[in-house]
User: Which sequence fits this backbone?
């Protein structure tokens, strides 16, 4: 049953594409659309660049932002500190 459904969907999709192509051709836009589609397809994909910093630069920046001593306890709430005492 699913194979038949796939074929129906494929057939319907192909018919819709053919109708759209015919409409574009009647408007004399077929070639322009294909050219634009190819331009879009050939665009370079955007790549993310991650800059990895060494530990010393992270420490230096932290010391500039927080020039005073910070205890590890300060980052926990009072409730969390109580829980840690019970461990």
Assistant:
């Amino acid at each position: 049953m699913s194979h038949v459904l796939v074929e129906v969907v494929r057939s319907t999709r192909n018919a819709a594409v053919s109708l759209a192509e015919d409409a574009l051709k009647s408007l004399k836009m077929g070639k322009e659309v294909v050219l634009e589609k190819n331009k879009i397809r050939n665009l370079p994909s955007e790549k993310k660049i991650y800059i990895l910093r060494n530990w010393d630069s992270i420490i230096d920046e932290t010391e500039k932002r927080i020039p005073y001593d910070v205890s590890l306890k300060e980052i926990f709430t009072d409730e969390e500190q109580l829980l840690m005492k019970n461990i």
